[in-house]
């Protein structure tokens, strides 16, 4: 079920991840394989930061509202 959702997504966003817990940590790779743009919003770099197209670092309480404002 999750792979079907990842196959259809255009943008995959991970918010507040360590990148160490699987299978969730592998979702970025699956989404990217299907052509999604990938974004990590995180307090610090994670184990999977290099896998994302873009990473923004800082507290989620700041990053998420800024990102949502960009989208709307």
TrEMBL record:
InterPro entries hit by this protein:
DHS-like_NAD/FAD-binding_dom, Ssirtuin_cat_dom
The protein's matches in PROSITE patterns, at most eight in alphabetical order, are given as:
SIRTUIN
Q: Which Gene3D superfamilies match?
A: TPP-binding domain
Q: What is this protein called?
A: NAD-dependent SIR2 family protein deacetylase
> What are the record keywords, sorted?
NAD
Native species of this protein?
Agromyces ramosus
Annotated ranges, domain Deacetylase sirtuin-type? 1-72
Q: Where are the transmembrane segments?
A: none
Query: Out of the domains of life, which is the source?
Result: Bacteria
